[in-house]
Amino acid sequence: MQEQPSAYELVDIVAEFIRSTAMPQLTGHAAFHALVAANALDMVKRELKILPRATDEEMERLRVLLGHDGALEDLNRELCAKIENGELTLDTAGLADHLWAITITKLAINQPKYSGYVRALEEGYGT
Amino acid sequence: MPDTMNPIATPLAATLAREISGVIGIENLKRLSGGASQETWAFDAIQGDKAIPLILRRAPGSDRDKNTTSAGLETEAALIKLAGEVNVPIPPVRLVLKAEDGVGRGFIMDRVEGETIARKILRDDEFAGARPKLARQCGEILARLHSVDMAKLPPLRLSTAKSEIEQYFQAYKTHNHPHPVFDLAFRWLRDNLPDETPRVTLVHGDFRNGNLIIGADGVRAVLDWELAHMGDPMEDLAWICVNSWRFGNIDNPVGGFGQREDMFAGYEASGGDKVDPERVKFWEVLGTLKWGVMCTTMVMAFKAGDRSVERATIGRRSSETEVDLLRLLAPLKKG
User: What are the pLDDT digits (tens) for B81-91?
Assistant: First the structure.
């Protein structure tokens, strides 16, 4: 289904409303929480943009690592169990790349200014 | 709120008048921070024409907090006194509350002038002269803190690397949401568990930028003794280096203000054991993972009904620790 305006556009305009209309009329705790709310909507915007393709790629890597198809959450639980019991390790082809890819995706959505993320990109992640 | 409208103002003033000679009342009572179970208040005790700046650390009611990792306020007060005896900078404890005081449980200590907000300490000109000295000072302070006579300690939990791993693994499993990087870190910690510490000491447990009062001259007081326990002293040297406590200054591993080598040198020069950097790294991985798991418990609090926007978004900060863990365990390039 495709609808207009898109989810991204709706979230974008609500964030803009909070920042330019609501926040200037608020004080103290309410103003602070409005800023936190606008920042949360920015996070949603980044997720809407980044996640669909990142999830496709995550699924593809999980199928290769685990050798079968499944639902995203089930595959992730299986991956966790196999890392926990030592069946998959950093020496397993593709595991470190996969962990880096999901982590970089999370940070690109959640906190793209975080020092550890910025440094990982400088250290050549993805190049 | 005027002091007279605050229900603790009257019993607090009466307690101070009884315990500190010449005190005739209190002023400027103000709540600083704290969660549901513990509060911090600032106030002045009026003694003649003098105002003594004080802090009240308080748990409402009379029941002991059931949180197993929390040392308890009476224990905190005892630890602050013991640390002061070995020259750890601390806010002197004036008195420990008794049930009949009617203020709740807790203690009253001096209010030490200075700054605790990490970003200000790392940014403001006022602290420019102090910053280069802080890493070494932290090492010196920790060496003294770890020298507290174990025979004098109040009852404290013993928390080894192994038990910390199990405690946080249970917390992670309770949240029941897959974080593959957390599983990698738990596995690494179990595979790289160091030998038992040659010396079990008092461990502060939350020694980091944000819990230190800093002045232009350096560290003035070590605060927040709530998580103190007995354990491996290297835990304290590592926790202050967790990237979350560098507040963006990633190249200054000690609290965002200094280098590990300076802290280790200060530690050894002040009587601390010879530092094994690999052992400290182990504790830094564990510390990073602990903070990541704590962030996921915020998600649980949010889903359980603590519905603030702030609570909701802090849950996603767990991913910050995931990138830090990968940089520690699966670095992109050597060095």
Answer: 999 999 999 99
